Amino acid sequence: MRVNHSRRTAAPSRSVIPRRRQAVPEPRYGLLRRLGRADRWAFDRVAAARLRGLEYVLPRLSRFADHGVLWFTSAGVMGATGRPRLRRAALRGSIAIAVASPAVNILGKQAFRRKRPVVDLVPPIRIRWKLPTSHAFPSGHSASAAAFATGVALEAPRRVAAPVAATAAAVAFSRVYTGAHYPGDVLAGVGIGALAALGTRLVWPARPPVARVARTEDAADAVADDGTGLVAVVNPVSGGSGGATAAILPGRPELAVELLERELPAAEIVRLGPDEDADKVFDEAAGRAAVLAVIGGDGTVNAGARAALEHGVPLLVVPTGTFDHFARAIGVESAAQAIAAYRGGRVGRVDVSYVTPVTGGAAGGAAGDQFGEEERLFLNTASLGAYTELVVRRERLERRIGKWPALAVAAVRTLRHSEPVALTVDGRERRVWLAFVGNCVYGSRGAAPTWRDRLDDGRLDVRMIATGRRVPRVRAVAAVMAGHLRVIPGYRAWRATGLEVASRSGDLRLARDGEVSALPAAVRFGKHAGALAVFTPVDAG
């Protein structure tokens, strides 16, 4: 085969150098660059803005929020009102700040180390603060503002939560307006603060503002514009009133009476004397009343409820006690709200629980039957064991040192000295350190939970710490306070319509709605479903 050598592949006249490919940035870095440019552009727009009147307000507001001063001051004011919902809101907001602040200032800023903005475009009139030396991302002021506002919104009524939220938004905006942060820093801080506040619900669930009462009726016939037919029995010493300060400042009961006399001038006011039989006074008042009002705490409301049930009249609760658990459950937290509920004429029917000695026959009647003389009623809780001892010790001390110091001292002494009680519960022998029986199911955790979702579910909520050995005291009290009772051996909880308890060592001491009484060795707990007619706010569920 002949090969043609005349056709050869021509050599290239110049060397070919392959083109180097340009590095393509990863998508995430490109996105971060775009976000950074947008962040700086937004900062420049805010810096160039001229908002009349805010040039002086926002810098001062920003400085007032330094170190949480604005929010802790607000929390103090809310707590000083004495309103339970506002106290809870202030506490939840403060806890949220305590979580959000270290998360931002210790973890977030050290992790990102973003530099502060250049403030050349910010007018000097706005820069009335010392330039921060910490990193910019995330904004600590914004985190604290969002944490407090969100915590307040979880508990407080809208008329309080809305202005707090508006103030928090103003603080967050002021951080950009004064040149302290980029908008992205502020948004990140707001997100962290809101999450911190929402996270508090994991260990402390937010309580519903009002327990629902489905069965309602209209009591307009019993309501008069001037209060005709309303008989109000007031306990002048409820809520710690009547002590050394009574001669200087009027207590909550007297303030409630003044408001009632001004708003309902035709209402009859009956004051309980220190040596009078409360049951007799309430019975006589209910006998001539179209509506029976109670001005006092949970113990006084308990006595009024008995009289209202026996005479078939609706009950109006005017809270002036220390805790006012029942009034808060139906959504009445002040005398003004009680008067508004009366004028609204909306009456709901709630369950009433009782405890009665066990005899040969049945104890207690069905709902709507005449109530037995031996029945001891309770609207909130009945407790056995350590809590009863705590109440007795507190009552011995409170006249000398005040209710709250007495409660603290009594808790310490109870922790040191209380022992389990030998009981037979529904036929089973137990050694009980603490037992709680609630009127309707309580939604919160703990040995003494404080809120209910309904007041007409027909059930008893039973919670008990029973042990066969000495109770681990510090662990038990810590679990009771924190609400995580499952960490205590022997904790049991169940729902029932009835319960029998017998003491193997003698008579029982029982605390009903905060009042301690002695009972025979064997008792039965039961319910009168929907028995009590009580005025509730018009907007109650």
Automatic annotation (TrEMBL):
It is found in: Cell membrane. The keyword Disulfide bond does not apply. It is a multi-pass membrane protein. This is Phosphatase PAP2 family protein. Residues 225-358 form the DAGKc domain. Signal peptide: none annotated. It holds the Pfam family DAGK_cat. SMART domains: acidPPc (SM00014). It comes from Actinomadura soli. GO terms for molecular function: hydrolase activity; kinase activity. One of its GO terms (cellular component) is plasma membrane. PANTHER family: DECAPRENYLPHOSPHORYL-5-PHOSPHORIBOSE PHOSPHATASE RV3807C-RELATED, SPHINGOSINE-1-PHOSPHATE PHOSPHOHYDROLASE. InterPro entries: ATP-NAD_kinase_N (IPR017438), Diacylglycerol_kinase_cat_dom (IPR001206), NAD/diacylglycerol_kinase_sf (IPR016064), PAP2/HPO (IPR000326), PAP2/HPO_sf (IPR036938), YegS/DAGK_C (IPR045540). Keywords: Cell membrane, Hydrolase, Membrane, Transmembrane, Transmembrane helix.
